[in-house]
Amino acid sequence: MDEADKDGVALVGRMAVSGLAATVAMLHPEAAVLAMTALPALDTGLLALRERRRNSCGYVLAVASNEANTPIDELVEALVNNPAKALLLARTLEAAADSASEAKVRVLGRGLASGAVTEDDALVMEEVGWAVMLREIEAPHLRILDYLAKQDPETPGHMMVASWQDLKAVSGFDELLGPALSMLERNSLVQTVQSLGLDDHMRNRWGITPASAARHFVRGYLSKACLSRFSRAAEAAAPAVPSAEGPG
Length: 248
What we know:
- The chain is mainly alpha-helical.
- Helices cover 68% and strands 4% of the residues.
């Protein structure tokens, strides 16, 4: 079995295409030939995906090592020898492997370093929670959080209130805006006006009624903390991103 087939994703992918070819062969021999021709392209795509995921995992460890000022092998050894920290390592690598964002990988690396150097298991588990949460967050979600983090420009000190249409335009989401907002609300990153409760400012300034309150949103209590993590990661010196070719 070659290296690509040892990878679970690659193996399942090849089985799916081979199974498809076997199935359609009974019905349409020409279609079976077309299905089998997909295997080389599938291998190319899966190998590229595998390499990208490996680079992301390597980068998150490099960031953590840089942040903790500890060699990578020593850092990993310290993490795997503690149950809570081993869980943090697993969740961080999962989130990094699935990330479409270099910035998020840096944030994850800083969180991994924070968990690695503390002796407080509660703080380690807090970083585990952030890693799990961050796995779901990408650029469109951050645009929503950034928009809601602003104050009402006409009434300093008041939170920005955004309608469904506002956030649709800001995020770029269309049909999946609802699930995105549900995820953010579940993680205390956004809050509906309905759950917050109406006040005179919201009624008068934004024209919100009880009937429309569920379609208007404000920042959640963790939104600033989440954005702050991305800001700090952007400011900190970080190792270079691994090239697509890997470490030679």
